[in-house]
Amino acid sequence: MSLDKATVKNIAFLARINVPEEDLDPLAGELNKILDWVEQLGEVNTDGVEPMASVSNTTLPLRDDVVTGGGQPEKVLANAPESEKGFYTVPKVVE
Amino acid sequence: MSDLSKLTIAKARDGLTKGDFTSVELTESCLAAMTANKGLNAFITETPEIALERAKQSDARRAAGTVASGMDGVPIAVKDLFCTEGVLTTAASHILDGYTPVYESTVSAKLKTDGAVMLGKANLDEFAMGSANVTSYYGNVVNPWKGKDGKDLVPGGSSGGSAAAVAGDLCLAATGTDTGGSIRQPASFCGIVGLKPTYGRCSRWGIIAFASSLDQAGPMTKTVRDAAIMLQSMAGHDPKDSTSAPHALPNFEDALKGDVKGLKVGIPKEYRVDGMPSEIEALWKKGANWLKDAGAEIVDISLPHTKYALPVYYIVAPAEASANLARYDGVRYGLRVDGQSIDEMYMNTRGEGFGKEVQRRVMIGTYVLSAGYYDAYYRKAQQIRTLIAKDFTDAYQKVDVILTPTAPSAAFAIGENQNDPLAMYLNDVFTVPASLAGIPGMSIPAGLSENGLPLGLQLLGKSFDEETVLRAAGVMEQAAAFTAKPGQ
Amino acid sequence: MSYIIQGETCDWEVVIGLEVHCQVTSKSKLFSGGSASFGGAPNDHVDLLDAGLPGMLPVVNAHCVEQAVRTGLGLKAQINKRSVFSRKNYFYADMPLGYQISQYDQPIVGEGTILLELEGGKTKEVGIERLHLEADAGKSMHDQHPTKTFVDLNRAGVALMEIVSKPDMRTPEEAGAYLRKLRSIVRYLETCDGNMDEGSMRCDANVSVRPVGSDELRTRCEIKNVNSVRFVMQAIEYEAQRHVELYDEGEEPIQETRLFDSNAGTTRSMRSKEHAHDYRYFPEPDLLPLDLTDEYIQNIQASLPELPDERRERYVNDFGLSSIDAGVLVAEKENAAYFEAVAKGRDPKLAANWVTTNLFGALKKIGKPISESPVSAEDLGKLLDLISNDTISGRIAKDVFEEMVENGGDPEKIVEEKGLKQITDTGAIEGIVDDIIAKNPDQVAQFKGGNEKIIGWFVGQVMKMSQGKANPGMVNKLLKDKLSD
Questions:
Q1: pLDDT value of residue C447
Q2: Angstrom distance (rounded) from CA B11 to CA B485
Q3: Cα distance from A3 to chain C (closest Cα, Å)?
Q4: Got the DSSP string for B135-188?
Q5: Side-chain half-sphere CA neighbours of B278 within 13 A
Q6: A93 has pLDDT over 90
Q7: In the annotation, is B435 catalytic?
């Protein structure tokens, strides 16, 4: 389970985090150390064991179909780094 | 009057009731202590105007005979992970520069309604990821306790600012959050009490999420009684949080009335780890004896999957965090670093906005969920988590509470362990299992290390049985008679 | 009739699967209290969770769960008593959380079927693979500014039902029929308004080809977000042809996502991404698994309205309509309701005929939906009564109907005012018949000479002379009798 520079670069893109070129190898080293350490989980026999769905033993609460929020675009946009005419704006996305 | 900040909640409650002082005086004392102790860097944002305003309102309520609760008029610090309306909330991260929520977290709102006075937003590890409060964008927090050679020590983390503020008497209490030990471990390092309630006891609505299935808010206080009083105000069902427990709240303070006669206390053998300092093992035995002397029965138990808890945690928590932190993208709030394309903007914003530890965990989380690795890592970890939880359920057939050390060491110097993320992770070895199982855990200061630094002992209880934990903790606290203060 | 594409080396058949996203009809969103209604000023329907603000948490809308179960039952599908919400992780400007809350390996609804009605009265059963609930994304507008994209999160969080078919369709016609039927079902159930042009129903088509006779599944392409039934059919046609041409050239289609250009009638590759999406699905930790009881499901089952298939059977069995006519009537709930109002206490076949031919024809001409029909069911019924009790002939009724469409009005009044009552007085008709016979000896001779068909000409003459008011049946009988003398 060793990560090389290219894999780290790929993960960084999936996570949308810019990692400078010179940091890729050291980061790979750190991540590999952590991943090697978690390898020990392979020792545990988990046949027939259900992955934990939730520590809570309660049932999923459901809410009524009522409008309880929204109607305050100024609040929603209050912390926006950039906005125009009530829209959030971002660099143009090409599809 | 500057000694007022040294009071406990219970004593302040008394004093306020008797009219010995006002909330405003109590608050001013804390504000003065904060000013005098800026070197601790315990606060990211101080809110003296809000504090005095709320203190005034508390005094007015008291005069009108409409005291809201045991917390009414009590000055507290709020960990800067709780969204506070109109007050900068940063999660100690550059990426939330300038973020001012238009809403208040449920827990801090409940404390506000109960009359607590917010002194400011306490410093923490960035996005609650850390065990030493050395990853904050706003700088390290310094433990009020000093090393033997006068070295600055870490307060523990992630709720380092909260712990330092309480230990340094800058406030009477503080809110913390605990995901893998972030309340209990700093409490141990700072010589105070820290309680992580059962998962679901306190609402997570409005708390900046780190790991959704693990995060839990809790009180950090000077005494066990204070923790009970504060938990009363913090806890309760919240329909806005689907994981919030519907259980009714007992009177937590009443739990302190009982004794521990016949209480079965489990000592898990797997918590005796290699290389554990002998003084910690000795303190652990001492703690067991306190309970035994008070009439409890000590029972040896086994929690067989204990050693896998940390690696499980370091898969599950980063995985959930990688998704929880995806919303910090520069589009709708916080830092934005421009780019030629939207992807570039995301990458620049997050590359600059997140600190190194956060980046590491988000990357690990992304990796363990990625195609081809989900089964081997995430799914496997969640299966072992089921086994860890079952270890506790099985043990609780035989015992009522479990006693362990809180941390594998006393507070260490700032700068130590910092080059090795793994070494840092090992700080949570005793606290993480309870987080994975969702059970309540409490750390109380039990003794001093040979270097004169606080050491905590941890009590773990059954789900929703904070009462038994409080009861046993109260007994231990009396026996420990821990009166040491930093800088003495 | 199968749809075959002739290639250079062999004949090819098309394998089609459709993924349809249906916006759930509800007041608020799937996980938040923001309004789910269409439109609105930018970011006006956005609640704190929809904006992806720190610390916000999802809470499931009970009504949306019901709607999904209702739809599943309408698709004769397995309802899964336990289902799990999962996070689908990817970054996009209109995905405020950086992940979509969806369902992955444990959807709320499992396998079901849809019955398609095809040309010539044929039917085909198409399998449904699953239906799951998920939150919609917001809207990105790329054309409002030269260098910026505008983002409106009103739609973010609206409940969607993603309905995935099995790859059972083989022709563009089947795909069209599937979409029409699915739309019909959700409109009957009122779980979605099925508006493809408003975007409340969106279709992604998965297309591949294979040599006729083989059962392999070759590389498929996904054509995303095609917004009309017609375009879906066109897109499939084009795409299948494109695949065959590639195979003929010794190449293979690349597995990719494509967009349909409705102007050119072609598909094109979406701008290639260096990295494919790795969604990193994992169970949503802010929610618990959704558990449904047998009672809950039964209650919804019991509350289902009569669905198109059942209604069609009823029309065939109880009203004696042909399967095709019944199919046309039941496709839209409003049409069926109109028809039943007209047919009540009357000859259903007559009613069906008039509704499907005359009324639908007229509505199409004037471009109005049945809800805005100038002729009410009550009035059409009255018109039919006038035919049935011989007050007017079918021919005259058509004129009256035209008048009703143009100017409204009660048919009885129109007949009265225009003096259109049918002549049924034998004597009067006989008079006209005698007259025509007398004036046209050549035609009489032709009839007597063996050309029986010329009776039609005689009928026409009598009708003309009577301004269409003579009862055609009587005219026929009288002519036959008199000419055969």
A1: 86
A2: 18
A3: 17
A4: --TT-----SSPPTTS--B---SSSHHHHHHHHTTSSSEEEEEESSSTTHHHHH
A5: 0
A6: no
A7: no
Per-residue pLDDT reduced to its tens digit, B294-325: 999 999 999 999 999 999 999 999 999 999 99
* Phi, psi torsion values for A40, nearest 5 degrees: -55, -20
Question: What are C's interface residues with B at a Cβ cutoff of 8 A?
Answer: 48, 51-60, 87, 89, 91, 93, 96-99, 149, 151, 278, 280-282, 285-288
Told to judge if B182 belongs to the known catalytic residues of this protein, a careful annotator would answer yes
The domain defined by C426-484 carries CATH number 1.10.10.410: yes
- Chains within contact range of chain B (3+ C-beta pairs < 8 Å): A, C
Q: Give the model confidence (pLDDT) of C251-264 as tens digits.
A: 999 989 999 998 99
Structure tokens at C153: 């999160």
The model's confidence at residue C429, banded by pLDDT at 50, 70 and 90, is: confident
- When pLDDT is averaged across residues C412-424 and rounded to a whole number, the result is 82
Residues B477 and B469: their CA atoms lie apart, in Å, by 12
Query: How much is the pLDDT for B275?
Result: 84
The CA–CA distances, whole Å, from C426 to C385, C396, C472 equal 22, 19, 12
Question: Which helix (H) or strand (E) element contains residue B344?
Answer: helix B342-353
Q: Residue B487: what pLDDT?
A: 78
Residues of A in contact with C92 (CB under 8 A): 93
pLDDT digit string (tens) for B249-276? 999 999 999 999 999 999 999 999 888 8
CB contact under 8 A, B242 and C287: yes
C181 min Cα distance to partner chain B (Å) = 36
CA angle B53, B56, B59 (to 5 degrees): 155
Q: Please judge whether C149 and A90 are an interchain contact, meaning their C-beta atoms are less than 8 angstroms apart.
A: yes
Q: Among residues B58, B79, B105, B110, which one is catalytic? A: B79
Q: What is the pLDDT of residues C279-320, one digit of tens each?
A: 999 999 999 999 999 999 999 999 999 999 999 999 999 999
Q: Which residues of B73-110 are buried (b: 16+ CB within 10 A; e: fewer)?
A: bbbbbbbbbbbbeebbbbbbbbbbeebebbbbbbbbbb
Q: Name residues 35-74 of chain C within 8 A of A (Cβ).
A: 35, 41-51, 59-65
Q: What is the mean pLDDT of residues C404-422?
A: 86
Write down the mean pLDDT value for chain B. 96
Spans of all domains in chain C: 4-300, 306-417, 426-484
Residue C274's pLDDT band (cuts 50, 70, 90): very low
Contact residues, chain A to chain C, C-beta under 8 Å: 10, 13-14, 16, 53-54, 56, 58-71, 73, 76-77, 82, 84-95
**CA B194/CA B406 separation, integer angstroms:** 10
Q: Does domain B2-262 have CATH number 3.90.1300.10?
A: yes
Q: What is the dihedral of CA B23, B26, B28, B29, to 10 degrees?
A: 180
Going from N- to C-terminal start, the domains of chain B cover: 2-262
The verdict on a CB contact (< 8 Å) between B366 and C91 is no
Rounded Cα gap, residues A42 and B379, in angstroms: 12
CA distance C203 to C232: 8
